[in-house]
Structures are given as structure tokens and as C-alpha cells.
Amino acid sequence: MELRHLEYFLAVAEEAHFTRAAERLHLAQSGLSASIRALERELGAPLFVRSTRRVELTEAGRALLPEARRALAGVAAARNAVAAVQGLLRGTLRIGAEQCLCVVDLPALLSRFRSVHPGVEIRLRQTGSAHLVEEVRGARLDLAFVATAEEPPVGVALTPIATEPMMLVCHPGHRLTARDAVDWSQLEGESFVDFHADWGARQVTDRAFEAAGLRRRVALEVNDVHSLLDFVGADLGVALVPRPIAYKEHKNVRVLPLRDTPSWRVSVALPTDGPANNPASRALLDILGECLALPADASPLPVPATP
């Protein structure tokens, strides 16, 4: 089995289309198809169900997919390790991040990393934390900055870097603004604006309501912080958000503390074999430690004191 066959298989699986995969690989489609057929003959099983519109994985293809990713990631790690011994850092660093984590200045972090290691290509993916953790588990990302209330799956470790309390945001004319702090029972019956279910803040809120034995209605689901604050500012619902988000500038939102508030935790999600096998990941974490005024060899990274 040749590595290029696994690379070709992975491209077709991710694109779900032979033509797009061939374009991505800069290959002739006929050559790509021939390589896939050769791999199928070697494995003794069809890997794809082909149709005129879409290509789907067979059961054998689904079994091969995570192993192909791990194999290719291992080869990349081996190349990077040799380069590191030679004093070079190159290759690709695949990073994930949930939007608006606030406690990590990701543009500044990546800019500093690139200035020190210009030979490493940076790829960034933004989506919800639950999905990012799965991307790390499946070796599609080298690390991810996440905020999740869930226990990580086997193969992923979470290293905390910050915690923040959850706060209530509401319209200035809302009935609760007369209070200094809000009890959970006072939120029952309210209409909520919230993030999608794979965002960390949504997971924290769902768990807190479940623990309090209260039901709630999420009327509006959004996928970005600014939309959430805009809808709250238009008096279309209230929201529970981490403190850094609550105090983002918005002229028509009031922020209130919660009694018995849950915590929102930001972590770095890493494969359980750790960043030691990926010099680029280790280098990025070293820079992160410096940015957070932490020792570069801290493991795990301690949680900074909440201001």
C-alpha cells in the first residue's frame, strides 16, 4: 500500500466527488480513479459507492478513513521530527478554534508564531467546540482552542487555560434589570437567544438548567456573538454568556450577575499522545505560555486568575 493511495483516498472521501478531489490534488481524474481502483483491489473491498452526482463511502471505506488519517498524520509527524532535529520547523499546523473565545488573542498568537516559524503553513478552522474536539480525535486537526462542558472522548486531552463566569444579558427595559443579581428560578419562562448546541457556552447553560431542574425555551439560535447581542438588544430574548462576551460593547444590552453561576472553561484540545510528537504544536504552545505569562514548560497550562 502506497502513501499516495491513502492521500488520494482521503481526498475523495472528504470531497465526496472524484472531479473535485482530482482538482485538489492537481491530478488527472483518470489517474485518480485508477489509483483508487488499485487500492480497492489490494484491500479486496470497494471503498466508494459511485453515482453521477455524489460519491459515498462504503462500510469498508468508513473503516479505512480514520486509519488513513492516522497513518498520514504519523508520516507528517515523522518528517517534522527529523526537521526539528535539524533546527528547522516546517510542514502544516492545523488549528481549530471556537469563535470569540476572547481569552486567547488568536490573530496575535498566530502572527507571532509565523514570524518565528515562517516555514510552517498555518491552517485554521472555526466551528463549535464539540465538532472541533472530534476533529482533533480524528487527526484532522493538530490542536484546537475550545470551550466545552463535556468530557473529552478517548484520544483527546483538554488542557485548561482560562475560566470565566456566565452572566445574564438582557434588554435595558427587561423586568430583571431592577435586581442586583438573578436567581435561576427567576429565568424560568423566559425566551432565550443562544448559540448552537456544539458551542461551549450553550453546553454550560443547558447543564446548569438541567441541574436546577428547570426547563427553558431557546427561541433564537445563532452562530456568532454579535447577532446574539443584537437580538437581545432588540428585546427578543435574554441570554447567558461568558463574562468576556457579556461586556462586549453594545449600547442596548444590560449585564447582570447570576447567583451560583457556572463557569465557562477555555482549553486546548490535544491528542492524548501530546504535542511532543508534533514540534509545530509544541512551538505554538510555548508561545501561548509566554503570551499568558506562564512558564514555557508548564504542563498542563494552569488556569490564569480571573480578574
Record field, number of beta strands: 11
Order of helices and strands: HHHEEHEHEHEEEHEHEHEEH
Decide which structural class fits the backbone: alpha/beta
| Mean pLDDT metric | 85
Number of helices: 10
The CATH architecture of the largest domain comes to 3-Layer(aba) Sandwich
Helix content: 25-40%
What is the terminal-to-terminal distance?
A: 55 Å
Name the shape in a single word: elongated
How much is the radius of gyration in Å?
23 Å
Features:
307 residues, alpha/beta, Arc Repressor Mutant, subunit A, D-Maltodextrin-Binding Protein, domain 2, 3 domains, seven-stranded mixed β-sheet, 40% helix
Question: Your description of this structure?
Answer:
The chain has 307 residues and is of the alpha/beta class. The chain folds into 3 domains: 3-70, Arc Repressor Mutant, subunit A; 88-161 and 266-291, Periplasmic binding protein-like II (D-Maltodextrin-Binding Protein, domain 2, 3-Layer(aba) Sandwich), CATH 3.40.190; 162-264, D-Maltodextrin-Binding Protein, domain 2, CATH 3.40.190.290. Helices cover 40% and strands 22% of the residues. The protein has helices at residues 3-15, 18-25, 29-43, 59-85, 106-116, 129-137, 200-212, 225-233, 243-246, 279-291; strands at residues 48-50, 55-57, 91-97, 120-126, 143-146, 156-170, 191-195, 217-222, 239-242, 254-257, 263-271. Strands 3, 4, 5, 6, 9, 10 and 11 form a 7-stranded mixed sheet that branches. A two-stranded antiparallel ribbon has the order 1-2. Helix 5 links the parallel strand 3 and strand 4. The longest helix is centred in the N-terminal third of the chain and has 27 residues, at 59-85. The chain is elongated. The model is unreliable at 294-307 (pLDDT under 50).
